[in-house]
Amino acid sequence: MLVHPQFDPIAIHIGSGGVHWYGLTYLAAFGLFLWLANLRVKQPQWAAAGWTRRDVDDLLFFGVLGVVLGGRLGYVLFYKPDYYVHNLLEVFAVWKGGMAFHGGLLGVIAAMWLFGRLRGRSFFEVADLVAPCVPTGLAAGRLGNFINGELWGRQADPSLPWAMIFPQANDGGIPRHPSQIYQFLGEGLLLFVLLWLYSRQPRKTGQVSGLFLVGYGMLRFIAEYFREPDDFLPLDSRWLHLSQGQWLCVPMVLAGIVIWAWASKRERERN
User: Fold this and answer.
1) Residues 63, 66, 72, CA angle at the centre, nearest 5°?
2) How far apart are CA 98 and CA 68, in angstroms?
3) Running DSSP on this structure, what letter comes out for residue 230?
4) What pLDDT, in 10s, does the model give residues 46-100?
5) Any long-range contacts for 143-148 (C-beta under 8 Å, 24+ apart)?
6) pTM (2 decimals)?
């Protein structure tokens, strides 16, 4: 069996502190978004609609606010509401950890809506531009989780060639699935390839956004079968023994299907 390498969580030491790997993965995520979104606005359909590099820069600003505020509030509301009701000041203690993708997604949705409102663009036009640029950032975040040795997977068969022991789990050396890598490959790289290829050709407004929701939701739902549930949300206490992450993916997939179908029908009616 493999053993987690136990990386130093601090990538660059500066005095008694330093720059953490997880912070660098966020920086990489935002940098990848800038690069990919700038490639997008150069494509004929986006250039003809008047999109510019300045729009991308402003979108990043709105998106960062959405990710950070939404991710934190999502964790507070979706995962540990009872705890934070009695510890209100810790809602702001982001350095202690606790970010939720689904909350971050809602934050980004709000940010895209506000950006579109200010620029006179429809929400789905903005979302279709952004969607293919998101999975690489998700991949960077999962690498950060793996480097930190957190969010490890469920118990695996010891004969699995890549079964890994995570010392941080303090479980006596149980071999586990490196679920962070599964999510890096699925929700990150695979979803990016699918969305990028799909969006290279002009699509009906809303279809790329719908595909993102369906694709992420399905891949995350599958990955949750290999990821260890939070200890404060055991599967035995969950309906149908589905994790909190899986239940949050269900409305996401359904919404994606509805949006994709609505976009297709609306365009046919216009024609």
Assistant:
1) 140
2) 11
3) P
4) 999 999 999 999 999 999 999 989 989 988 888 888 888 888 888 877 666 678 8
5) 143/25, 143/180, 143/184, 144/21, 144/22, 144/24, 144/25, 144/26, 145/180, 145/183, 146/178, 146/180, 146/181, 146/184, 147/7, 147/9, 147/21, 147/22, 147/25, 148/7, 148/9, 148/21, 148/22
6) 0.88
Distances (CA, A) of 26 to 39, 92, 134: 20, 19, 12
3-state secondary structure of 155: strand
* pLDDT tens readout for residues 221-263: 999 999 998 776 666 556 678 888 899 899 999 999 999 999 9
pLDDT number for residue 96: 65
Distance CA 248, CA 257 (A): 15
Instruction: Mark out the alpha helices in the chain (DSSP H runs).
Output: 21-41, 44-48, 53-78, 81-85, 101-119, 123-130, 135-148, 179-183, 191-199, 207-223, 244-270
C-alpha count within 13 angstroms, C-beta hemisphere, residue 102: 19
Q: Which residue has the higher pLDDT, 87 or 36?
A: 36
Mutual orientation of helices 123-130 and 21-41 as an angle, nearest 10°?
A: 120
Six token digits for residue 225: 């079968």
DSSP-assigned beta bridge partners for residue 13: 18
Q: Please report the pLDDT score of residue 131 as a whole number.
A: 97
